Amino acid sequence: MIEGQSKELSRETHDALKRISTATLTTQLFKRGFRNQFIQGVRRVNQNGPRLVGAAFTLRYIPAREDLDHVGVFQDPEHPQRKSIETVPPGQVLVMDCRGDSAAASAGDILVTRLMVRGAAGLVSDGGLRDFDQIAGMDFPVFCAGPSAPLNLARHHAVDANRPIACGGVAVYPGDVMVGDGDGVVVLPRCLADEVAADGLEQEQLEEFVIEEIRAGKPVHGTYPPNEETMTRYAAWRRKRGTTDGAA
Amino acid sequence: MIEGQSKELSRETHDALKRISTATLTTQLFKRGFRNQFIQGVRRVNQNGPRLVGAAFTLRYIPAREDLDHVGVFQDPEHPQRKSIETVPPGQVLVMDCRGDSAAASAGDILVTRLMVRGAAGLVSDGGLRDFDQIAGMDFPVFCAGPSAPLNLARHHAVDANRPIACGGVAVYPGDVMVGDGDGVVVLPRCLADEVAADGLEQEQLEEFVIEEIRAGKPVHGTYPPNEETMTRYAAWRRKRGTTDGAA
Amino acid sequence: MIEGQSKELSRETHDALKRISTATLTTQLFKRGFRNQFIQGVRRVNQNGPRLVGAAFTLRYIPAREDLDHVGVFQDPEHPQRKSIETVPPGQVLVMDCRGDSAAASAGDILVTRLMVRGAAGLVSDGGLRDFDQIAGMDFPVFCAGPSAPLNLARHHAVDANRPIACGGVAVYPGDVMVGDGDGVVVLPRCLADEVAADGLEQEQLEEFVIEEIRAGKPVHGTYPPNEETMTRYAAWRRKRGTTDGAA
Amino acid sequence: MIEGQSKELSRETHDALKRISTATLTTQLFKRGFRNQFIQGVRRVNQNGPRLVGAAFTLRYIPAREDLDHVGVFQDPEHPQRKSIETVPPGQVLVMDCRGDSAAASAGDILVTRLMVRGAAGLVSDGGLRDFDQIAGMDFPVFCAGPSAPLNLARHHAVDANRPIACGGVAVYPGDVMVGDGDGVVVLPRCLADEVAADGLEQEQLEEFVIEEIRAGKPVHGTYPPNEETMTRYAAWRRKRGTTDGAA
Amino acid sequence: MIEGQSKELSRETHDALKRISTATLTTQLFKRGFRNQFIQGVRRVNQNGPRLVGAAFTLRYIPAREDLDHVGVFQDPEHPQRKSIETVPPGQVLVMDCRGDSAAASAGDILVTRLMVRGAAGLVSDGGLRDFDQIAGMDFPVFCAGPSAPLNLARHHAVDANRPIACGGVAVYPGDVMVGDGDGVVVLPRCLADEVAADGLEQEQLEEFVIEEIRAGKPVHGTYPPNEETMTRYAAWRRKRGTTDGAA
Amino acid sequence: MIEGQSKELSRETHDALKRISTATLTTQLFKRGFRNQFIQGVRRVNQNGPRLVGAAFTLRYIPAREDLDHVGVFQDPEHPQRKSIETVPPGQVLVMDCRGDSAAASAGDILVTRLMVRGAAGLVSDGGLRDFDQIAGMDFPVFCAGPSAPLNLARHHAVDANRPIACGGVAVYPGDVMVGDGDGVVVLPRCLADEVAADGLEQEQLEEFVIEEIRAGKPVHGTYPPNEETMTRYAAWRRKRGTTDGAA
After folding, report:
1. Interface touch F43/E147, C-beta < 8 Å
2. What is the pLDDT of residues C141-162, one digit of tens each?
3. What is the reported pLDDT for D243?
4. Chain E touched by D94 (CB under 8 Å)
5. Taking a C-beta distance cutoff of 8 angstroms, is the pair D66, D93 a contact?
6. Which of A210, C82, D85, D109 is the most buried (most CB within 10 A)?
């Protein structure tokens, strides 16, 4: 485990990650030897919602057991699911390990609304969500395996929070940085977030130029990846747009 | 089996179910010990279509066999698929058991149109549907595993109607009540439909209040589930809205 | 294998296929003994994009190997993925065999843009695609297993082009005709394309009439399939619409 | 459906099928256009047990429901599972449709023992079996998806007998002929059983000769399938062994 | 969670469980409302090994990450996998949560040998095991998903011990009682172990009598479940065998 | 692709690989950054057969098509499946890419016998095999997904030989070294075979010593991996057994 890794993202890294696609981030991770940081089987719920960026606050479910998982458990303020909703710090992302089982919900619109009101940065679950249409309409980034009406207690028992978990086949350590867009969610190991954000921003700018070139009829070879000549034109393009403004 | 269970829904139960989410219904069923009434692997085809409510009229498919399943079979007015389209009573839902196999269609736009014209309440299939875009545009509630062009005869042999079936991993007995929304489809055992509708309507109203509270900044604990104080305010809220108007 | 089958589609067949649904085509294929020509697990990316019609130009991936599949490989103009993007002839469809594995992308918006600029007819992949939102916004027919951010090198090694492949469980021979719509993609064996197009166009017209009849209240039996009386009225309907001009 | 197809196998066909491998039978079926008669996901339980041959007597399960499927149901002599055990005629094979779900048992050693005592020809289930070691030790041909301890009521509700079913992805009509060996179970459509048995016996003899030839160093081409010269030697080989003794 | 549940089994319960099949135990659990206590996807490795009985000592894996999971980690005596091998108390069963992923091993013959030498009661993993043949030859009860050569670090990161886990789709709380035989492994909630053992022993004796009756030609109805007459004969049979000494 | 990599294994490497487990080989590969060289979903057919070692000769199947894949194709001596059986060089392993589809056979006992007679080193297929019992009885190493009776033509079309393929999720290049034992099959990239064999042999000897230590009561920590003290005793143990002669 990775005890006590910082959960604070610098403003610079946070803002950069808001502008970098998950595609670019997986390329940056691949270059550093990471091949398995993309959460499988999970999709964006809010088709036009904001991008997801924030440190992971984790919640782990195991399979439900009939005697332990009855509706009475929600009376307990210490119930791990309910407590995690109330304790995830503003700016962080609640990440749920449902063992990829979407036969029941991992949350519904009431809990997601509370998360949003509390200032969380978003929700990622490899299980299902109920009240899917309502959640899809919120201005809040949510990713899950799909709609699923059944009460979480029918399949899931919330067991502990802020421990390392599996989500969609990826290890998620508390404090890792979750970034999500239309392709899905990538998990940035906390120790790499700053450098990946910096290099990713460079890559985004370059690819913005590259796609302009491709639209204008340039062939793939020499353009993507760029050869020296393309890089020279890219340098000119960057100068022309001015210097500090990044990829936006 | 459950021979001869009534297929008539009272107007009151029907109207209540039109206003209750499948999420709420699975909670009501869970409280009564039913954990497996939500059809898995099936989604709404008509994104903005009406909600589905109606008694189940079932059709069962088994795998096709090359000598028995040729296009000539549709000449026969007794062919179970074609006959079921013509005999499902108005207000009922045709529910198809395709063994969860969506490699071929279970119906297409012509048959679905006929169902709609005849006054059926909707269609649920755990197989595929062809002419998906056309069906998605109808004002008729349809749920299936996804689009699939191949002719049903390529995989499915319609064998009998109005027998108990499996659909998406759930037992469906003729006369059970099918309710569908954006989360999917729940199967209400016929014997429970009235009480689940009544209690579900109560739950819907309470949750409408709860979500207002949560939006206004109340914490989950004490609000959901509600403690005594919240219930007192809920009683006031209900009085204020007047009495008979329910959850709508 | 089918060496050297013509890849040229006649204008007539091409235009006919633009007007025939994949549902109709699978029926025509079924009548000829073909039960497995519909690509499974693949869906349309561009919800409102044009229909897909074109001859197949194939690309085959095998699993990646850590020492062979590093970012440096894209410097090589002979890299099979990059080369196939540059060599698929105008009017043809690039079809990728990713072994149905969508854990990584098979391409992204830069390569898809290049394909479009070069005049390819579309893209079909049984793997994932990255930059999904961007691709979904293009006026270019693309079908794949779903969004997936990771770089193709994380899972896929492009090995050869224009060899027979598997795509979504279907054999695709270079030159076979790919047709796609909202239901998905059907593979027409090249040798059948002309006759299937001709008969399919007939079927489309008949079904256009049939659905009008069904909307007007006719029962399935006698209408679909049509009996003699229905065929008589269909003949009149065709005469009334005028000429021989087909289904449009 | 195929109402009233004879369930009586002639002695000749029965004896032939006892000597023909399922591999040979699938080849004979393939030649006649049948590609999907081999039950998928099912294996032999009795490693050294006798081969399975007999007409199908079918039992269908749907998913269990908590209120209907309690241990009390077995008091009812009409319970379909218990009744089918008592009514499958001697010489027939009980074939169970468990929707391929082996998360619970479809039977255990007591019921299998009763089947054996009553003279049934065997058992095929696409679900699990409990008391697997005990059943594996019986001199009785049994095929299933694997061992599974849970009571059938935990997942399965027996609903009707002697109706057409799906088993391991294959249509099984009552009276179809089930044949099983170390490769698994093939379903012979009843109408083809006699001719497939006759031709299969020929094929078995030829392949016995072929494998001798291959062991002696002959190449595949010319031997398998045999060319004229090989057939001449085969004719001699058959004459030498005498005529009536078949493949044994 | 269930903090501090006793892990000590009484000698009586332990001995009873050694004589009760997992089939019988799942029936006892079903009667008490537990439908999901059988570990799915796991099988016995030692075909003729002893039965498994013991309290659960759990180990949890999450997916591996390339920077954290290198061979150097095994130098650390606190590495959770290695430490759990050294700390599972004699008589207890090491139960591993591998998320059902058998693409890599969860242990090999060296660690299993150490477990055996230390007096553990057995091993259950829903992942793979390497050195499968060697483990299969030990006189030690082991259950897993199957053979798998790759080093655990290729897929699995051991994260913590003696926390509630999922194993084969079942919740396992430290101290729950694991029982395994040829059908697989059942998880007895600790609080039920004594009563389930007592009632299970009764059931085993009755079923021993029942199977004798069935072998002797009795029909299922009246025998299984037994009617009053059968129970009278059972009482006599028990008296005749002598004392109260159970099923052995 | 890796054109023209040598297929000749030195005698030393071949003999070493005969004595090294697949578990050890995956560890050696993992240390070199290879995480995905173990063929998934494939098992040993011959429970007591010899170990598999040999260079890969590949055969690729795509899905069958009804018009192309009829029994007549086997008359053609150039049919890729039949030809590969006749051309795989002695000492090499035929490796078949069946897309992991075991619904039909990829070969049967006649072809496997021919392979053996011709001196091939073994067979690996990620599809099924028919005549499973006969093949299991041969003194010839065979690995596949399981028994499957249907003729290969029902699902598979042999398309080309000695091209890079996927087998069980792993890239196999012609000339790569296949090694198989009770855990399954590992694919050694040809360029690594010699060094992996040398280092693997060292590891085998060390683990032989380690397991003796563990059996004698040593703890895991300090023994596995060995600390300095253990290495000293290991050096003595090696000296005592004599020479440099390896692990046997």
Report:
1. yes
2. 999 999 999 999 999 999 999 9
3. 58
4. no
5. no
6. D85
Measure in Å the smallest separation between the Cα of F21 and chain E Cα atoms: 8
Chains D and A: 3 or more CB pairs within 8 Å of each other: no
Which residues on D lie below 8 Å from F86 (Cβ)?
219-221
- The ipTM estimated for the assembled molecules is 0.95
Q: What is the pLDDT of residue E243?
A: 58
Q: Among candidates E90, E150, E96, E147, which has minimal Cα distance to E126?
A: E96
- Per-residue pLDDT of A210-237, as tens digits, reads 999 999 999 999 999 999 999 999 999 9
* Burial class of A32 by CB neighbour count within 10 A (0 to 12, 13 to 18, 19+): middle
Taking contacts as CB-CB distances below 8 angstroms, the residues of chain B near A105 are: 23
Which chains have 3 or more CB–CB distances shorter than 8 Å to chain E?
A: A, D, F
Cβ pair E211, A197 in contact under 8 A: no
Angle between helix D109-117 and E193-215 (nearest 10) = 0
Report chain F (248 residues): mean pLDDT per 10 consecutive residues. 76 97 98 98 91 98 98 95 97 98 98 98 98 97 98 97 98 98 98 97 97 97 96 96 56
Shortest distance, CA F55 to any CA of chain C (angstroms):
18
The structural domains of chain E, ordered by start, are 37-188 (3.50.30.40), 195-240 (no CATH)
3-class secondary structure per residue, chain B:
CCCCCCCCCCHHHHHHHHCCCHHHHHHHHHHCCCCCCECCCCEECCCCCCCEEEEEEEEEEEECCCCCCCHHHHHCCCCHHHHHHHHCCCCEEEEEECCCCCCCECCCHHHHHHHHHCCCCEEEECCEECCHHHHHCCCCCEEECEECCCCHHHCEEEEEECCCEEECCEEECCCCEEEEECCEEEEECHHHHHHHHHHHHHHHHHHHHHHHHHHCCCCCCEECCECHHHHHHHHHHHHHCCCCCCCC
Model confidence band, residue B247 (pLDDT cutoffs 50, 70, 90): very low
- List the single best residue of E62, E67, E156, E165 to mutate versus A (max A Cβ within 10 A): E62
Question: Distance, in angstroms, between D115 CA and closest chain E CA?
Answer: 10
Give the relative orientation of helices B11-18 and B193-215 as an angle to the nearest 10 degrees.
30
Token representation of residue D245: 């003794």
